[in-house]
Design goal:
Blueprint: H1 2-13, H2 19-27, H3 31-46, H4 55-71, H5 76-94, H6 99-124, H7 126-144, E1 149-151, E2 154-156, E3 162-164, H8 175-189, H9 196-221, H10 223-231, H11 234-240
Antiparallel strand pairs: 1-2, 2-3
Helix pairs in contact: 1-5, 3-6, 3-8, 4-5, 5-6, 6-8, 7-9, 8-9, 9-10, 10-11
Length: 241
């Protein structure tokens, strides 16, 4: 059922209208997402294969496979995300002493958060989050480029170059990917959380915010800098970072 769920997501992420479109969609894939998918399948493969399915297992399998059909028609993030949440919750609930099954459920829950719950949270608090981004960027630019005018989420240079922050530019919009990376890699390495993981999560969150804040500063720096970091090779550099 999990493989079917992830395969349905894969089909919707690929543009098969032409060979060139398929190549572009393949190049634009979120590698962190696919590492997480691998982590789920890997932990499921290592789970207790001698365990016999219960009646609830069978009903869940039938339900998920049937619901994947309408999920293929609905917006992929939310439909697949809700199904992934239900499946993850069942894995965690039914795991018992099977640590691999529980780990698979944890990663799948993180995947569903990136697909549906993270975007919902971000939409609810977008004005506040964008204001926080604008404040961080504005404080940095005030120190290094005082000639750039700053008003809330708008930045205007002396040469007339100006940018306005929107949802897709927010540092907080990328946090779900950062947290998904932590969960996936941790659950690939082991099946239990450790106390030090809280510190790792904090470092990753702060690093993601600072990295994106510096990128926005470069977008506001000049028209040439904007072209490089928003539409040019800088996109690849930021993605790798």
């Amino acid at each position: 059922a999990t493989v079917c769920l992830l395969a349905n997501q894969a089909v919707q992420l690929m543009d098969t209208s032409s060979l060139s479109a398929f190549a572009v969609s393949l190049a634009n894939q979120n590698l962190i997402y696919w590492i997480a998918c691998y982590a789920v399948i890997y932990r499921l493969y290592l789970s207790d294969q001698a365990a016999m399915p219960t009646r609830a297992d069978r009903w869940l399998l039938i339900s998920i496979c049937l619901l994947i059909i309408p999920a293929s028609i609905l917006p992929y993030r939310f439909a697949t995300g809700i199904l992934a949440t239900a499946t993850a919750g069942y894995f965690i609930y039914a795991a018992g002493a099977d640590r691999n099954l529980r780990a698979a459920g944890i990663v799948l829950l993180a995947l569903s958060t990136q697909l549906v719950w993270g975007p919902i949270f971000f939409q609810l608090f977008m004005p506040e989050l964008l204001s926080a981004d604008g404040y961080l960027v504005g404080e940095i630019l005030t120190s290094v480029r005082p000639d750039i005018a700053w008003r809330e989420t708008t930045f205007t240079g002396p040469d007339g170059h100006a940018i306005v922050l929107v949802g897709g530019c927010s540092s907080f919009n990328n946090l779900s990917s950062a947290l998904l990376a932590v969960v996936a890699i941790t659950m690939l390495a082991r099946t239990e959380w450790e106390r030090r993981d809280a510190g790792v999560i904090a470092v990753v969150v702060v690093s993601m915010i600072l990295l994106n804040t510096l990128r926005i500063c470069l977008l506001a720096w000049s028209a040439d800098s904007y072209a490089y970091w928003h539409n040019g090779p800088g996109v690849v550099v930021f993605g790798l970072g």
